[in-house]
Write a structure and sequence with these properties.
Structural class: alpha/beta
Distance between the termini: 52 Å
Number of helices: 11
Strand content: 15-25%
Number of strands: 12
Helix content: 40-55%
Order of helices and strands: HEHHEHEHEHEHEHEHEEHHEEE
Oligomer: single chain
Largest sheet: 10 strands, mixed
Length: 267
């Protein structure tokens, strides 16, 4: 009994001393399952209790602007750079990457699997007016999708009912695409970890324009003195460490790597 009480005291003591940090992350990062691997290791190695606010990139950045989180992990470089340039973040640190893919019905009635580039694949979908699900939520994935349509010479405001903006996260959007047997742009990690694939299949990938970089941005304490900048720095140190490299590169589904670590050491 005495030994049990001693063990409980240690557990309760460590819980009481754990420091909580709030980090806004993309739904695609969370849907991949990687957070379930990283967070226990972060807690064990640093004592940080990382509380995730799972939202799209646009909303994550707005949470940072308001000082509602201590740090952000998102994937839209131009928006991230604007966030730092405006003084809301102290800096931008690249952590890992994967790629976007175009998923659709296995019958591929728009015939995108043989496309030479992402723009060609989207053009084929538009010309066929094949059902296409857009996240429509100002997320990093949605921002990338809009940029791809723009580059292909299309304005999504001109599309008909075949283009369905659902205003939802990656998992919910994939569920909608599965139920409608529709095309969708997804990050590879979320697609591989997605359980309700139905008749969907990965139809197009490999265009360099589909590169998908994730970056870490600490919220600027000069704007919001209450943010936990020391804790954010400790988290950044761990996310760029060899321990993080091993876990990120080692995270696979059916033998396929979901993310590649590419953080540079601090100069």
């Amino acid at each position: 009994m005495i030994r049990l009480l001693a063990v409980l005291a240690v557990i309760l003591g460590s819980t009481a001393t754990a420091e909580t940090i709030k980090m806004a992350v993309t739904t695609s990062f969370h849907n991949s399952g990687l957070s379930e691997v990283l967070l226990p290791a972060i807690a064990s190695d640093t004592g940080l209790d990382v509380q995730l606010l799972v939202v799209g990139t646009g909303q994550a950045l707005r949470l940072g602007e308001a000082g509602d989180v201590d740090a952000i992990l998102v994937h839209s470089k131009s928006a991230e750079e604007a966030f730092v340039e405006a003084g809301f973040g102290t800096h931008r640190r690249e952590i890992m990457y994967n790629d976007f893919v175009i998923v659709g019905p296995s019958s591929d009635h728009a015939a995108i699997s043989g496309a030479g580039a992402a723009g060609d694949a989207l053009t084929a979908i538009a010309q066929a007016e094949a059902a296409f699900v857009s996240r429509g939520d100002d997320s990093g994935t949605h921002k990338k999708e809009r940029a791809l349509w723009d580059a292909a010479g299309y304005d999504t405001a001109d599309f008909g009912e075949w283009y369905k903006a659902v205003g939802a996260g990656m998992g919910a959007s994939l569920n909608t695409a599965s139920s409608l047997n529709a095309y969708i742009l997804a990050d590879r990690a979320s697609w591989l970890n997605f359980g309700n694939k139905g008749d969907l299949a990965l139809l197009f990938a490999g265009d360099p324009v589909l590169f998908n970089q994730y970056a870490y941005l600490p919220v600027n304490p000069a704007r919001h003195p209450h943010v936990k900048s020391d804790a954010a720095a400790s988290l950044e140190m761990w996310l760029t460490s060899d321990a993080a490299r091993t876990l990120i590169n080692g995270y696979t589904i059916d033998g396929e790597t979901l993310f590649t670590f590419n953080a540079l050491k601090a100069q």
